Amino acid sequence: MQEAARKLPYVAIPEQKLSRTRYPVILFAAFFMSVPMPQGIWAQAATAVGTSPEFEVVTIKPSDPGVLSGTFITVKGRHVIARSIDLDDLISLAYGVHTKQIVNGPSWLATARFDLDGVPGTEGKPNRAQMKLLFQKLLADRFQFAFHHEMKELSVYTLTADKNGPKLTKTDRLPTDGTNFSYAGSVVLTVRNASMEDFANGMQAAFLDRPVVDQTGLRDRYDFVLRWTPEGSTAGNDPSVPPDIYTAIREQLGLKLNAAKAPVDVLVIDRVKEPSPN
Question: Are the C-beta atoms of 6 and 208 separated by less than 8 Å?
Fold first, then answer.
């Protein structure tokens, strides 16, 4: 099984850049959870409920290959700024799917990179659903992106309970309190108020090379900490070093990641075009 083989995701963090050269930790997943974090993720709630935001103004241009700034999304004031972003990952961000769930796209989808700078037309800071709508509208308007859904059998990881049962603590938070994914070091993942679907989505978004399908049957929300050592790290024989991610999930959470084939929802691209620079 291969850990973190997918491209580095990115996340909107005020005044902070995230390079694609860093280990791809939980940033992308944290963005999808759209919750408060020490790193400064936009919190839910500031924009009026029911509002469907779109960019009031946005500029998109091809990235300069001579500028080695890395790939990142950052928020400065009301500006949402992206650098060296490819459309494969922008679609993944907008629709909450693994890039392997995006099919029938042109070859440039994962190679052509763009810089964008946009200002939402709605006051306040978008919640998770509203932020995704911003990018969905951008994709439709500027990239002429259109797709339909199909079910397709893909290589996945199934998340199941281990034979001895889960080792999880139910949260005392309310579902409306938001879900928190944060990280430290290599790697300590702190999860608060998360369902197993949240956890599966976060793991596929940030760490794993294929979609993750929740088959635990667990319906509660949980708080937990997961510690593991990234694949390729030189830990030697130090017993204090955490195990690999798969062993850690089994030993610390009482769950298992199993490589499997399963039918999953995919986005089948019907139309997409490179935008005219502006």
Answer: yes
Helix (H) or strand (E) segment spanning residue 157: strand 146-161
Asked if the model's pLDDT at residue 2 lies above 70, the reply is no
- Cα distances from 57 to residues 17, 54, 109, 113, in angstroms, run 22, 9, 23, 20
Say if residue 231 is exposed, middle or buried (CB neighbours under 10 Å; 0-12, 13-18, 19+): middle
Contacts of 277 (CB under 8 A, 6+ apart): 60, 61, 62
Cβ burial, residue 42 (10 Å; 0-12/13-18/19+)? buried
199 SS3 class? helix
Q: Is the pLDDT of residue 103 over 50?
A: yes
pTM for the full predicted model: 0.77
Q: What is the DSSP letter of 110?
A: G
Q: How far is CA 243 from the centre of its chain?
A: 23
- Distance from C-alpha of 264 to C-alpha of 253, rounded to nearest angstrom: 25
Question: How distant is the alpha carbon of residue 70 from its chain centre?
Answer: 17
Hey, CA dihedral for 216, 9, 269, 132, is it positive or negative?
positive
Helix (H) or strand (E) holding 87: helix 87-95
